Amino acid sequence: MITCGVDIGSRTIKVVLFDGEKILDSAVTLSGSAPQENTERTYLEMLAANHMTRSDVAMTVATGYGRNYFELADKASSEIICHTAGVAFLCPNVRTIIDIGGQDSKVVQVSEQGKVADFVMNDRCAAGTGKFIEMVAHTLNMPVEEIGQAALSCNETCEISSMCAVFAESEVVGLLHRGIPAEVILRGVFRSVAKRVVSLGRKVGFQGQIVFTGGVAQNPGVLEAIREHVGDPTITAPCSPQLTGALGAAIIGHQTVSQNQ
């Protein structure tokens, strides 16, 4: 039995095909200015690439910001529930999830059964999200894919004190004019992002195995900063941390169909 999970985020769309044991295929594309059309196209292209039609998929579950607007889905599910299901499948011993996406960040406490025990979320300020990091990369004229390693290449850092993404961007420009190297600024930016999400997470606490997910988890500089602020060098990120929501949605679809049979 094959199910599909579709995570329609603010920045990217993730699609996963799942057979109950493993990911069969996955895709990631930008949400763009027409997220509904882009989601449908990505979904149908994946099915075609795997020589499948919609009738070959037992259930399609949508999650993320756009979950209620994807008409090809059979069901919609909360992103908190889906991310937890996906991470628990990949890391069965997980007890805390730190997730930083394009426009929000969240920390989830996970029960021994792999379910949501508690969570806290920030979706009102961009300063601790992937959008802010993209803004900084653009200001520094550096590819987003390279800034993580660039920050790890130096030991110096600087303080980013602004609590607002707009003011923080202005602060970055000011540091550049003062001659502060881009690598040092990036290290300060990542420490600022980590400080915000860890402060948020203190409301529910950090315990057990901690896993870092979301698109920002692909950035090794942010991962290292989070390890430092939590005080836990064992915090890890899955190989494809941006796929956990879509994977969890597919898993929930598989469980739903199995229970109804």
Automatic annotation (TrEMBL):
The keyword Magnesium does not apply. GO terms for molecular function: iron-sulfur cluster binding; metal ion binding. Coiled coil: none annotated. InterPro entries: ATPase_BadF, ATPase_NBD, CoA_E_activase_dom, Dehydratase_Activator_Redct. Keywords: Iron, Iron-sulfur, Metal-binding. Residues 5-253 form the ATPase BadF/BadG/BcrA/BcrD type domain. Pfam families: BcrAD_BadFG. Its cofactor is [4Fe-4S] cluster. It comes from the Bacteria. SUPFAM superfamilies: Actin-like ATPase domain. This is Benzoyl-CoA reductase subunit BadG.
